[in-house]
Amino acid sequence: MSTTLPLPSLDTVDEDRTAAFEDRFVHALNEGGMLQLVSLGHRTGLLKRMEDGVTATSESLAGSCDLNERYVREWLGGMTVAGILEHDPDTMTYRLPLEYGSLLSDRGDSNLAVISQFLPLLGTVEDDIVDCFRHGGGVPYSRYGRFHEIMAEDSGQTVLPALFDAILPLAPEIIGRLEAGGMRVLDLGCGRGQALIRMAERFPESQFLGYDLSEDTINWARECSAERGLNNLRFEVRDLTDFDRTAEEAGFDLVTTFDAIHDQAQPLNFLKGVRRTLKADGVYLAQEIHASSHHHHDCGHPLGPLLYTISVMHCMSVSLAQNGEGLGTMWGRERARDYFARAGFGSVEVNQLPHDIQNDYWVLRP
Ligand SMILES: C[S@@+](CC[C@H](N)C(=O)[O-])C[C@H]1O[C@@H](n2cnc3c(N)ncnc32)[C@H](O)[C@@H]1O
Known about the structure:
Largest sheet: 7 strands, mixed
Strand content: 15-25%
Radius of gyration: 23 Å
Bound molecules: S-adenosylmethionine
């Protein structure tokens, strides 16, 4: 029996709607090109060089950033046509207006150029993903060359600036207990470990431990911690797929995960492990993508299409590559509540923080 649905007759097509979509698509093509140029400007240091509104020529920029002038000139042309740079054709100079410079460099509260790097990164594995559409399976972390670097830059904006003033205070007793000392803190899927490093510096009387699957990222975190001379912090390579069985029982006062549940191979095992390793008066703080568990409710999500793209081309796929569940970036609040309950958490609260439209912040207790 065929499952093909009958085609609607062509005379029901609304031509205005078609034309509007065509306009939107052309706009998206141009904006996609602009994002790629921004990513290049971020990686080459051009945006940083221009962040304070300096007026520059292609030669002066190429010289000060140690880049090839022909590439710089073409990039300047594209950024001008995209309406980001101001250009004086008489003097052949270019300028990044301060209003844009504060959004595309570290001068302002958050650097949007950081997130522009995700689409080019995903483009590097498109062939692998097409193959997965045909044959199933996933794409391992090792195929995403710069993933951990970009991820650390991204969480450097969503987590680090808000860690002490907004995220930890979601569990009001935590900062006082960390200051008093003797707390054991575990960060799972810690990546390059920046959150733990900040906490270990700030609370020298407490002990910190980070686990991650990736050897490279753990080595990076160890080096960074050693440079700072921290002796209350350790990082270990560890696959958390069987954490439900292998987690140290009642070992930690605080467990944190930053964007690290949904791309695990076995998120429920992972959460059961968190529950097992928390002390009776312990707290689990989890940052996870803000979404509903139903895509029809996320049509107005401010980052919905981007986050689904990241899911198809990264988060779901890296989990499937570990023979995992492939939960997906947009698993959402309803499913999260179900998983937290099944993992045995008794108290579950969810918050959004004003600096971060991308994430929810969960506070969980035994
Ligand atoms: C989205 S990244 C978040 C990294 C970090 N928390 C941050 O905010 O920058 C998810 C992390 O989970 C780690 N991960 C994925 N699967 C894992 C597994 N099976 N065991 C341990 N860590 C895993 C990845 O290596 C990655 O660093």
